[in-house]
Every structure is written in structure tokens, then in C-alpha cells.
User: Which sequence fits this backbone?
């Protein structure tokens, strides 16, 4: 009988975001492949609540985020005893909070589990001696894009052989339209002559909606039939985009949709997808969704986006906060619809070759097997 891989994932993520989405997909798929998984975090953690609903085993008895040193001191011996009893083959640490404590405890276990640090945060890693030493003591560091890999190698002097890029992936079978664009337009009351440009992102300052709004003014001046579709699943309180839009003379040319089950049908109405982010984008589900729908993408040069979009082949890249550049690239595609369709098709092929969910899972399993000698 083949011995099961046993994996502890430490993910004390305080809110539901792209990282939690990645983790939930990863854990479900690894479990289907026979990996025994435990997700560890703090009690009441929304990540753990979502994991429970997905049928995953969670552990919330050891709070390493507490501001009370006594509480952490009492938790450490209990945590070490529990890990020793569980006999994990691997421990994968996804956050900096508690990173040093957990890694130090794991190194004292017999047999010692393989240690992985997974990083999906575009903020520069701390370069203090303790953090640098802890990173460099990992058996493998997984990052979500090449820029993060280069940062760790340059600033923390990581061994390049220890750093591995695994891109986030989505399942094209789970994100495809169920309705025809004509039926969807009729359902939403959108006229056939309107040329739709889409932006799919949570309403947050970092997503740069205000620059998309500024670009829309320039686009409308040259192409009056252009319309703009906004799709979001979450609103952050600091974002004032909806208030800006309400004051704008263009508000009647915008169609704003909150959380929907038919997002693939909604986005498929657009001729192209825009990503106006000014930061973040350690991974970009939005970009992959546009590619899976065979839409060209106009994106800013932040995070992983330059690794996903091939300029003049699958879309265009512009500088963040450059509404003129954003407008120009979008107009170029709207004015050349046949070329835009060709770029969308090319982007779809790039997606299939590099950014499917199954590729992400296989690459992860390969690392787990390399570190333990066990195969799922």
C-alpha cells in the first residue's frame, strides 16, 4: 500500500483574498490526489471557516498571532507536542506571522519534516538577520511569480535552486460561458452596437479604478459607442470609486455588477479585459479569466502581470497610473477588432500551455515528492 503524504499548511490569513482562494483550490485538489492535509490558523479565522465548509481538516488551537507573550509561550510546547504526534512529512508556511516560531519548532522534530515557505506578497521581504536566516534554512521556497523569486535571490541571498515559481492557475471547464452573448445582452438590456470594455476586480484603491475611469473619458471622446463593464466580488471601505463614478458625466456609460454566479457570461460580453492595478497582483485570477475567455488584456506593469501578458501578442502592458496609456492601448484594440480577436486566441493558447489549474497542482506535487521521496 502506497504511503500517504501528510502536509501541514500554516495559513493564518485574516481575510478572504486571492491567497485564500489559491489555498482552498490547492488543498482540495491535493486531497483528491491522496495528500492528507491539515490547515492551521487562529480560531475564528475566515480562511479556516472556508476550509471547513470545503471538507478540509483544520487546526485552530495554537494562536501564534497573539500579542500576549505568555499566551504564545504556553502554546509553543503544546504545538511542538502536537506536531510530533502528527508526524507531518512537510510543513508549508504561507505567512510571515509565526514563521520563525513554527520553522524553529519543526527543525527540532524527529524525524524532521521538509520545510516550505510559500510567498504571495509583493511587498519586499524583510532583510533582518533572523528573517534572512529562516528563509535560507527552508528546503524550498515557492513564489507566485518570477519577480518575487528575483527579489528573494537578490535581497535575501537565497540559493536560486531553492526558489521555485508556481503560477496560480484556473480550471477552464469551471469558468466558461453558459449563454450566448446575444442572449446575455438581451437579458441585461445592452444594445448590440455598444462596444464593451471590462474590468474585473474587487473595489479597492490598489486596483486603480479611478485610472480606468479617466481612461474611459478619453476612449469615449474617440469612440462614443464604447461602454464600460465593472465586475466586482468585494468592496473595500477605502475605495471611493462608486462615489467618483456617481459624480462623473460618464456614469450612464458604465454598467456595474456585484457578485454573480454567471461572471463568465458577463465578462464574455466584453471585447477585451482591462487591469488598471497600481500594486499587488502577486497572482492575477482576473487576467487568467480574460485569457480563458479568449479576450486580449490591457494591463499595468505590476506584480505578475508582465509574466502573463505578452505585449502585442496577447494584449498590451502600460505603466500604472497612466490613464492616457491605458486609453491608447484599449482604443488600439477597439479600432482593430480582427487583430484583437487574434490576440485573444493567442492568449487562450498561452493560458492552456502555462496557467491551467492542473499545471499548478502537478508542479506542487512534484516539489512535495522531491522533498519527501513519496508520490501522491
Assistant:
Amino acid at each position: 500500500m502506497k504511503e500517504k503524504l501528510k502536509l501541514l499548511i500554516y495559513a493564518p490569513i485574516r481575510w478572504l483574498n486571492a491567497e485564500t482562494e489559491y489555498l482552498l483550490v490547492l488543498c482540495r485538489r491535493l486531497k483528491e490526489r491522496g495528500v492528507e492535509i491539515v490547515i492551521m490558523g487562529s480560531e475564528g479565522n475566515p480562511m479556516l471557516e472556508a476550509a471547513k465548509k470545503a471538507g478540509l481538516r483544520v487546526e485552530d488551537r495554537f494562536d501564534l498571532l497573539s500579542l500576549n507573550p505568555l499566551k504564545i509561550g504556553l502554546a509553543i510546547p503544546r504545538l511542538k507536542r502536537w506536531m510530533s504526534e502528527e508526524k507531518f512529512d512537510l510543513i508549508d508556511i504561507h505567512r510571515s506571522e509565526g514563521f520563525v516560531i513554527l520553522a524553529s519548532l519543526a527543525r527540532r522534530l524527529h524525524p524532521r519534516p521538509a520545510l516550505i515557505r510559500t510567498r504571495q506578497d509583493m511587498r519586499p521581504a524583510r532583510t533582518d538577520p533572523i528573517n534572512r536566516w529562516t528563509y535560507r534554512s527552508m528546503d524550498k521556497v515557492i513564489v507566485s511569480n518570477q519577480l518575487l523569486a528575483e527579489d528573494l535571490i537578490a535581497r535575501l541571498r537565497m540559493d536560486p535552486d531553492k526558489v521555485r515559481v508556481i503560477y496560480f492557475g484556473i480550471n477552464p471547464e469551471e469558468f466558461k460561458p453558459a449563454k450566448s452573448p446575444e442572449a446575455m445582452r438581451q437579458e441585461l438590456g445592452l444594445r448590440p452596437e455598444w462596444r464593451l470594455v471590462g474590468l474585473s476586480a474587487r473595489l479597492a484603491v490598489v486596483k486603480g479604478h479611478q485610472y480606468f475611469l479617466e481612461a474611459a473619458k478619453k476612449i469615449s471622446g474617440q469612440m462614443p459607442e464604447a461602454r464600460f463593464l465593472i465586475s466586482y466580488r468585494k468592496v473595500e471601505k477605502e475605495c471611493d470609486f462608486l462615489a467618483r463614478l456617481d459624480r462623473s458625466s460618464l456614469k450612464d456609460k458604465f454598467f456595474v455588477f456585484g457578485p454573480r454566479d454567471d461572471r463568465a457570461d458577463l465578462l464574455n460580453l466584453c471585447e477585451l479585459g482591462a487591469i488598471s492595478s497600481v500594486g499587488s497582483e502577486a497572482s492575477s485570477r482576473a487576467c487568467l479569466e480574460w485569457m480563458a475567455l479568449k479576450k486580449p488584456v490591457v494591463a499595468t506593469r505590476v506584480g505578475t502581470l508582465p509574466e502573463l501578458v505578452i505585449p502585442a501578442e496577447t494584449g498590451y502592458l502600460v505603466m500604472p497610473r497612466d490613464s492616457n496609456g491605458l486609453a491608447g492601448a484599449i482604443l488600439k484594440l477597439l479600432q482593430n477588432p480582427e487583430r484583437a480577436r487574434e490576440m485573444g486566441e493567442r492568449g487562450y493558447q498561452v493560458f492552456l500551455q502555462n496557467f491551467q489549474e492542473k499545471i499548478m497542482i502537478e508542479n506542487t506535487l512534484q516539489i512535495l515528492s522531491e522533498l519527501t521521496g513519496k508520490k501522491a
